[in-house]
Design goal:
- With about 170 residues, the chain is an alpha/beta fold.
- It has a single domain, classed as Collagenase (Catalytic Domain), CATH 3.40.390.10.
- The chain is about 30% helix and about 20% strand.
- The protein has helices at about 15-25, 50-55, 105-120, 140-145, 155-160; strands at about 1-10, 30, 40-45, 50, 65-70, 75, 85, 90-95.
- The protein binds zinc ion (ZN) (2 copies).
- The site of one zinc ion has 8 residues, from α5.
């Protein structure tokens, strides 16, 4: 499987390199040249960017999975903000680092969790009731910090059935 990381706007190289390493459990990972943040995705009334508009940017690449990585604050109705968004059983996903800020190490860990979470959705996984599973829904940074970066036993089984893992 070929996964691509698409930096949207100015994204820290360290974080991208860390994500590429973590996501290599799925196969080859390529870091694409960055694209500009489209101003058409900005919603002045909210002071935020619409996540689904940014996610569209990932559609034109030939890879099996494309994860957009942005730095701007994103939302999707009816939520006040989102850490990321993905097509269920699709190829496109996006995360934003905007609300994951902390020290350099914690930012990388949080970004990896959100990346695994959103890619999990592209493989068909839904939210998991296991609070330490990476597929549990994060409503706050505390939720992101308290979950692990791994798929639980049941989510892993589903990924095996889907052929993602041997
Ligand atoms: Zn989710
Ligand atoms: Zn799970």
């Amino acid at each position: 499987m070929r996964t691509a990381l698409l930096p949207i706007g100015d994204v820290d190289d360290d974080v991208l390199a860390h994500l590429a390493l973590e996501l290599s459990i799925f196969g080859d990972v390529e870091i694409l040249p960055s694209v500009d943040v489209p101003e058409s995705a900005y919603r002045p009334r909210r002071g935020q960017y619409l996540a689904s508009d940014l996610k569209e940017l990932t559609a034109s690449y030939p890879h099996d999975k494309v994860l957009g990585v942005a730095n701007v604050d994103i939302y999707e109705d009816p939520l006040r903000f989102v850490f990321g968004l993905a097509d269920i059983r699709g190829k496109s996903a996006i995360i934003s680092l905007n609300r994951l800020r902390g020290g350099a190490e914690i930012l990388k860990q949080r970004a990896a969790k959100e990346a695994f979470h959103e890619l999990g959705h592209t493989f068909g996984l839904r939210h998991c009731p296991n609070r330490i599973c990476v597929m549990t829904f994060s409503n706050s940074l505390a939720d992101t910090d308290s979950k692990g970066k791994d798929y639980c036993y049941f989510c892993t089984l589903r990924l095996r059935t889907a052929g993602v893992f041997p």
